Amino acid sequence: MLNPKYLIGGLKMKRKKRWISLYGRTLLILTSFLIMILAYSIHAEGGQKKLLMGASLPLTGPGASYGIPDKRAQEVAIEEINSSGGITVGGENYILKLLIEDNKYSTKDAVATVNKLVRDKGVKFMRVFGTPPCLATLDFMNKMKIINGSLSSSRKLISPKYPYTFRTYNTSYEVLPPLFKWVKKNMPDIKKIQAIVMDDATGKAIGDALLISARYFNLELEVNYIPRRTKDFYPVLTKVLAKRPDAIYAAGGSNWGLVFKSAREMGFKGQFLSSTFKSEWWKMVGAEKLEGYLHCEPSLTSELVPKGLRDYREAYIAKYKEEPTGLSTYGYIWIHVLSAAIKMADSVSDADKIKNILETQTLLTKAGKFVFGGKEFYGIPHQLVRPGYITQIKKGKEVTIEVIPAARVFELLRNVYKQ
């Protein structure tokens, strides 16, 4: 006869095993369900592949006033492309993802950020901003076959030595000849120009371009080099104004609006010239002191500017609650041009195929119609071909008063640089 306690114990053991078995089955079902949900989530997230685009920009330091708008411009372009479904390449759909690093406008940080984006993140398409950062990373990106849409004023950037680097920016070499031609025709009393530019690699390139254009148009021009971080412009202006110039040309950092303010305070009543204009200068300098100021970037409110760029302005303001700079349009254009080339090449990995498309094809984008040229100047057609713009400040507004077709700009450049 069995002991009742063993019967009770055995019953308890069976109940315990049955409970464990039930618990195990329930846990297995729940786990399987969670795995199914997770798998679905991964599939949903991965339904569209991501195409990485990298940018090494000066977000802090002396170039931040240029780098931040460029970053925002690229973000606006990527949002536009992604909201339209991304791009389709090789039968697969991709959304664009922008990875941004701060190069602080220094060579050391540029090298570190480009290495991080290319080696660690696997980026195959880059935009590097600033002459020192660009020149410091050229060899590495060329070795890695990175399609590189950089912004630098240096003539060294565009060369057959660097077949994967393109410049989506009209430098002083491209914009000054149209500006000086316009000045020569419409402001014949301007004969003597004093220029104030940065004493770094960018400034030296601007100074070189100024001297070449001035020589061609028979203008007397002297370049004064000072540190980019200069805050007190009275010493250099004392020297400049002693030469009794008809016009002052200045190109530098965000605080360089003080050049124009200080010159007016010191009694200068002549013409101001520059390659660009910064919206913060309205408050820094005052509209009255800036009246008549001439520069080479488009006014994004002008009907003379392509509709795509006017739409860009509206999108930028809606997102960031401030006006974009004319210079920022190049970051916007780069993303659209690159995306169009990738689609036309039907490849996200064949750098040579994408490079050949950029070199040879007209690219139709939301930002407008673009081609690359400049082979006669740089030995390789990697310079963005863009119209020339003459914009003037009139009664507190930027007004684009003339647009020179790209073909005429390049014809002028052939004449200027054949000397």
Structural commentary:
The protein has 419 residues and is α/β, with parallel strands linked by helices. Helix content is 48%, strand content 20%. It contains 15 helices and 16 strands. Strands 2-3-1-4-5-6 form a 6-stranded mixed β-sheet, with helices on both faces. Strands 8-7-9-10 form a 4-stranded parallel β-sheet, with helices on both faces. Helix 2 crosses helix 11 (307-320), helix 3 (107-120) packs parallel to helix 4 (131-143) and helix 5 packs across helix 15. The longest helix is centred in the N-terminal third of the chain and has 42 residues, at 4-45. The protein is globular, with a radius of gyration of 29 Å. It starts with a helix and ends with a helix. 42% of the residues are buried.
Structural class, from helix and strand content?
A: alpha/beta
Tally of DSSP β-strands: 16
Q: Give the overall average pLDDT.
A: 88
Computed over alpha carbons, the radius of gyration is: 29 Å
| Largest sheet: number of strands, sense, barrel closure | 6 strands, mixed
The amount of beta strand, in percent, is 15-25%
Number of helices: 15
The stretches of 5 or more residues where confidence is low (pLDDT under 50) are 4-8, 26-45
Distance between the termini: 120 Å
Helix share, percent? 40-55%
Summarize this structure briefly.
The chain is an alpha/beta fold. It contains 15 helices and 16 strands.
Task: Please describe the structure with a list of short key phrases separated by commas or semicolons.
single chain; 419 residues; four-stranded parallel sheet; alpha/beta; globular
